[in-house]
């Protein structure tokens, strides 16, 4: 072919000294170790060589290098700026997108006015007066949108949001600056009245700075994909794609990854990583961490392996670790996307993904649409459905924003489960603030962030009248009255420039951006404009310059009011439902977190506080999800079958369906007879039993558990007898009309002790549901001044604390020096917490450290980033601490049958100091007091075991 030779060098890293770091990166990507012999390796020559280096390598073929330059000179491609690309919106024959947008917006606004602005009794003149500012704003916005060429964008967004709402898919009220648009409100894209809350259109779309509009739309997380599918179907599968995102190696992560491939001990790496500040809002680089943390520098100096680890990690920090799909971004093209950009196939998704990330997709001319999944919307929709079941219809878009019960609950800080308001610090603020207006909720959402937080005490003091507001200048009082003279929002910065210095709102948005960037040259120009404009309005120049400085300070951390208001609305909606329909709201919240046992435990504590029963799971009453049971005017929440560990949502759905079709299960035999053992296995059955879901069929869990093989054998036999057209998970019919099913003979054995039942229940549910092992020790814990986990969480103060906890998990580790330590998880009646136990304490306590054992714990508490860290200083079993705490025990029995098992329970603990009296209750109700010869070791657990003995009528502690 007579083709010339070309010199190339496959390049993977920029400089020779990056070879070892890149080799570690290969190991990270392929889950290999650097020391492995059989793995992919490169040579040290794959660095980016300059011209001189290439000529040296190819000194025997100089013409090959020359040919490379020939090709390079022929490459003269220049990326051109591309106008935004949008698919055409079908408006009907002879109608432009501008016409269609105006028609939809005008019609939509009139509906909004009727629902949200006009009140009963308004005459036509009053209605026209109320509507005038809205119609004027609508005309202005339409003019800007059409002038900037974006009518199609609004129509596309309104179309898929309208489709979602028609299909019953929950859609958020809007987030980001888009909530400031009356056009968006009229098209039902957003649900906030911009004029009522003083939201600015120019913060969203600035006519003086051309940039694409950007709506962030929240959908129910379970049905978000349906909306994306609709968009694909409407515009074409090859015209729509999600956007790629690249995960970077951050400081802590890169240390862990490099440490792993170097095979350094996990505990040692973990110790180093914890010295690196972890603040997602303001992440630090590894270099900054080394510079700011003497311990890291000391470890690097003393241990060459740590020096090597940090050197490699610093070279890899910031590199892309993996590719995945962006959580929200979607692009829609006017032609197949492969003609515009490269595409990527995410193995975890069947939707195409752009090969360019967010920044470069927009540079290629594609317009980004954000389809966000928000769990809270699903909670709200589920709660509304549960309210409908009790005959209450709720339209969240029309609920009153001044509901007394809602604000009273918020003012008490009872906001567990309430969107944006449930953190401990936020609750403290709400209790102090006593918020009583929706505007207060907007303010607290905006203020509760690093920086603006410093203004919270002043806001509260001014709201209570304890501090006088400072409005900077009388001209600014109208825009600062709402926030008591504190400039919280970016919109206030813009309005201040407009009122004081005559800026247009578009120009004021440019000022706001300049203040945020703090570029001196821009700031100097803007200061001059600001002061000159203020002087023209008879404001003293020196005063105007001072106000500029103060406004600039506020602008540095001012929050987008449209975004704060949109989030405040979702927060208020969740608070409204919790305050007025708490059982339905918490049932919905638990359903959406049914696989998160930590959250379920928090909700259980909240139910306990509110006096609402959380009923145990029951195959005859539970649904797949958490449900509300109502009886005699009282509501309770029934535990979800699918929330039991390792049972499977599909299997539980079939169980519930079978119960609906054939009636409740009569007994264990009926349950087994209708069971398909091919779908529900032994492990699932074990967890149903452990959780108490079969208690209504047989309350003796141990009997069911030990007889499970027989139950499953019966299920197999019955399944084989059924005809092939009854192949569901549960077949046949139950209830009173069902044919009689042969009984299953189970061993006549005693049930698990109360403590064992709780331990098994914990294993199946993830927390203690029906009770808690520590409940037995309640009076003793009070005497020892024991603090609960929630009390320590609320106090958020460091120091020595005495706690109690039941051991639920333990992970042992070996330090770099060879000593053993452990991360130990404990549970108390208020939650689960993890503590670290160092070698000395671990060695002393090891023989007692069995899951399910309860302890009195001496704990050292440290506070980091508002959260406690626990270190065990010492512990002893609660049983021994509580031993012989009672003066005597009297056991009332019905006949002689309990005597043998009663003695067995007492003998299991051995002799002690507590006298035990047995009182048989005779047929004529006479009682005889018998004193046992020996004294016994008695603890709360022993008393619980005595109470569980069949035939024991009463236990009295003396």
Overall description:
This protein has 958 residues and is of the alpha+beta class. The protein has seven domains: 16-74, no CATH class; 93-220, no CATH class; 250-318, Arc Repressor Mutant, subunit A (Orthogonal Bundle); 390-575, no CATH class; 598-747, DNA polymerase, domain 1 (Orthogonal Bundle), CATH 1.10.150; 772-881, Nucleic acid-binding proteins (OB fold (Dihydrolipoamide Acetyltransferase, E2P)); 883-957, no CATH class. The chain is 45% helix and 14% strand. The strands form five sheets. The chain has a five-stranded mixed beta barrel with strand order 10-11-12-14-13, surrounded by four helices. A four-stranded mixed sheet has the order 1-6-3-2. Helix 30 (682-690) crosses helix 33 (754-765). The longest helix is centred in the N-terminal third of the chain and has 25 residues, at 124-148. The chain is globular, with a radius of gyration of 35 Å. The model is unreliable at 723-728 (pLDDT under 50).
Helicity range: 40-55%
Q: State the shape.
A: globular
Number of strands: 18
Instruction: Output mean pLDDT.
Output: 88
Order of adjacent strands in the largest pleated sheet? 10-11-12-14-13
Q: Spans of 5+ residues with little confidence (pLDDT < 50)?
A: 723-728
What's the domain count? Answer: 7
The major pleated sheet works out as: 5 strands, mixed, barrel
What is the alpha-carbon Rg in Å? 35 Å
List keywords for this structure.
five-stranded mixed barrel, 7 domains, 958 residues, Arc Repressor Mutant, subunit A, four-stranded mixed beta sheet, alpha+beta
């Amino acid at each position: 072919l007579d083709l010339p030779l070309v010199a190339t060098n496959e390049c993977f890293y920029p400089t020779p000294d990056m070879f070892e770091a890149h080799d570690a990166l290969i190991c990270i990507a392929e889950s290999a170790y650097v020391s492995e012999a059989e793995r992919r390796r490169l040579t040290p020559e794959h660095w980016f060589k300059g011209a001189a280096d290439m000529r040296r390598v190819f000194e025997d073929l100089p013409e090959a290098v020359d040919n490379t330059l020939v090709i390079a000179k022929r490459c003269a491609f220049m990326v051109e700026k591309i106008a935004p690309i949008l698919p055409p919106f079908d408006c009907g024959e002879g109608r432009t997108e501008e016409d269609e947008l105006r028609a939809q917006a005008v019609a939509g606004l009139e509906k909004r006015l009727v629902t949200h602005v006009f009140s009963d009794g308004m005459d036509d003149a009053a209605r026209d007066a109320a509507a005038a500012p809205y119609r004027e704003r609508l005309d202005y916005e339409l003019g800007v949108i059409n002038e900037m060429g974006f009518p199609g964008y609004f129509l596309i967004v309104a179309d898929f949001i309208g489709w979602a709402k028609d299909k019953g898919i929950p859609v958020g009220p809007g987030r980001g600056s888009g909530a400031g648009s009356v056009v968006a409100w009229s098209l039902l894209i957003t649900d906030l009245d911009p004029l009522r809350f003083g939201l600015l259109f120019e913060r969203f779309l600035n006519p003086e700075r051309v940039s694409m509009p950007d709506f962030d739309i929240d959908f129910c997380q379970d049905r978000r994909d349906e909306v994306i599918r609709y968009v694909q179907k409407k515009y074409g599968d090859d015209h729509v794609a999600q956007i790629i995102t690249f995960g970077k190696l951050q400081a802590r992560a890169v240390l862990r990854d490099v440490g792993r491939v170097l095979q350094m001990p996990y505990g040692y790496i973990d110790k180093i990583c914890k010295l690196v500040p972890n603040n997602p809002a303001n992440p630090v680089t590894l270099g900054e961490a080394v510079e700011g943390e003497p311990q890291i520098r000391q470890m690097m100096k003393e241990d060459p392996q740590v020096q090597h680890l940090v050197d490699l990690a610093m070279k890899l920090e910031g590199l892309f670790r993996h590719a995945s799909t962006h959580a929200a971004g979607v692009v829609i093209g006017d032609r197949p996307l492969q003609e515009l950009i490269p595409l990527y196939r995410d193995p975890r998704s069947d939707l195409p993904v752009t090969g360019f990330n967010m920044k470069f997709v927009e540079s290629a001319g594609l317009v980004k649409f954000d389809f966000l999944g928000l769990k809270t919307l699903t909670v709200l929709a589920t709660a509304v459905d549960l309210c409908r079941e009790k005959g209450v219809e709720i339209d969240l878009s029309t609920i009153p924003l001044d509901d007394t019960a809602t604000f009273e609950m918020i003012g008490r800080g009872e906001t567990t489960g309430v969107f944006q308001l449930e953190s401990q610090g936020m609750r403290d603020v709400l209790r102090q603030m006593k918020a009583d207006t929706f505007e207060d909720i907007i303010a607290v959402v905006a203020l509760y962030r690093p920086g603006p937080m410093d203004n919270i005490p002043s806001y509260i003091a001014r709201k209570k009248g304890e501090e006088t507001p400072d409005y900077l200048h009388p001209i600014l009082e109208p825009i600062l009255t709402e926030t008591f003279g504190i400039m919280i929002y970016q919109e206030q910065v813009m309005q201040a420039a407009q009122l004081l210095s005559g800026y247009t709102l578009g120009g004021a948005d440019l000022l706001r951006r300049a203040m945020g960037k703090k570029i001196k040259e821009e700031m100097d120009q803007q200061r001059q404009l600001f002061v000159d404009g203020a002087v023209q309005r008879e404001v003293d120049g020196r005063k105007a310059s001072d106000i500029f400085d103060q406004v600039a300070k506020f602008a540095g951390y001012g929050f987008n009011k449209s975004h704060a208001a949109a989030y405040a609305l979702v927060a208020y909606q969740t608070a409204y439902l919790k305050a007025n329909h708490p059982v339905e709201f918490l049932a919905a919240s638990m359903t959406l977190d049914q696989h998160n046992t930590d959250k379920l435990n928090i909700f259980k504590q909240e139910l306990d506080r509110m006096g609402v029963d959380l009923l145990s799971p029951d195959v005859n009453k539970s649904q797949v999800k958490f449900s509300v049971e109502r009886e005699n005017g009282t509501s309770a929440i029934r535990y979800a079958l699918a929330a039991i560990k390792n049972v499977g949502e599909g299997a539980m759905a079939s169980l519930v369906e079978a119960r609906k079709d054939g009636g409740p299960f009569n007994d264990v035999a009926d349950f087994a007879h209708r069971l398909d053992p091919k779908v529900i296995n032994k492990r699932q059955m074990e967890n149903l039993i452990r959780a108490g879901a079969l208690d209504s069929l047989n309350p003796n869990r141990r009997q069911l558990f030990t007889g499970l093989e027989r139950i499953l054998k019966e299920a197999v036999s019955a399944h084989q007898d059924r005809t092939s057209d009854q192949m569901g998970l549960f077949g046949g019919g139950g209830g009173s009309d069902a044919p009689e099913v042969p009984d299953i003979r189970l061993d006549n054995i005693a049930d698990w002790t109360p403590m064992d039942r709780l331990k098994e229940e914990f294993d199946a549910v993830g927390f203690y549901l029906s009770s808690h092992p520590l409940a037995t020790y309640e009076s003793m814990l009070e005497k020892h001044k024991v603090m609960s986990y929630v009390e320590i969480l609320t106090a958020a103060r460091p120091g020595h604390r005495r706690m109690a906890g039941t051991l639920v998990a333990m992970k042992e580790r070996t330090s770099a020096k060879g000593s053993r330590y452990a991360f130990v998880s404990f549970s108390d009646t208020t939650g689960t917490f993890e503590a670290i136990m160092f070698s000395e304490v671990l060695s002393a306590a090891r023989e007692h450290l069995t899951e399910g054992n309860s302890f009195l714990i001496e704990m050292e508490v440290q506070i980091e980033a508002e959260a406690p860290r626990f270190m065990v200083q010492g512990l002893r079993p609660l049983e021994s601490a509580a031993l012989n705490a009672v003066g005597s025990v009297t056991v009332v029995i019905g006949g002689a049958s309990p005597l043998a098992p009663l003695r067995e329970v007492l003998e299991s603990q051995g002799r002690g100091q507590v006298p035990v009296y047995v009182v048989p209750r005779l047929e004529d109700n006479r009682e005889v007091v018998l004193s046992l010869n020996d004294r016994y070791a008695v603890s709360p657990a022993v008393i619980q075991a005595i109470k569980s003995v069949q035939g024991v009528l009463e236990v009295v502690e003396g």
